[in-house]
């Protein structure tokens, strides 16, 4: 009974750790149809528009760009869009040394913007017009 529990727990842990990756290889037998040496994709995430160019955010392309400029003087930082899908957009602002200083989270359906200072915490939270 104990070995069954440990095997199940180990399998769940391996599955959960693979969930955060772009794809995973199955090294053991994946089932009756698995051919040795064949890679099997278990998980594939859909990250649209990941790592959009810095200039897109800096040029005011997004509704939250004005808020970022007002709250943190965004002109002094490099902006990088790290996630952009139908629900959310996350922009990270980095200093001249490449260290992340601020993060903007825009929930598109609610028009909610959060600006977070990595040292001080929440800087701004509010609904904006688009």
UniProtKB/TrEMBL annotation:
Residues 28-47 are annotated as: Disordered. The keyword Signal applies. Residues 1-18 form the signal peptide. Keywords: Signal. It comes from the Bacteria. The keyword Signal applies. This is Peptidase propeptide and YPEB domain-containing protein.
């Amino acid at each position: 009974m104990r070995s069954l529990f440990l095997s199940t727990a180990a399998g769940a842990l391996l599955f959960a750790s693979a969930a955060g990756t772009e794809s995973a290889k199955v090294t053991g037998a994946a089932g009756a149809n698995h051919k040795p040496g064949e890679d099997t994709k278990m998980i594939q995430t859909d990250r649209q528009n990941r790592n959009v160019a810095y200039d897109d955010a800096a040029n005011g392309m997004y509704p939250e760009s004005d808020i970022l400029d007002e709250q943190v003087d965004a002109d002094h930082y490099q902006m990088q869009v790290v996630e952009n899908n139908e629900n959310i957009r996350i922009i990270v602002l980095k200093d001249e040394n490449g260290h992340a200083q601020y993060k903007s989270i825009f929930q598109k359906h609610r028009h909610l913007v959060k600006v977070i200072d990595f040292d001080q915490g929440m800087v701004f939270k509010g609904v904006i017009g688009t």
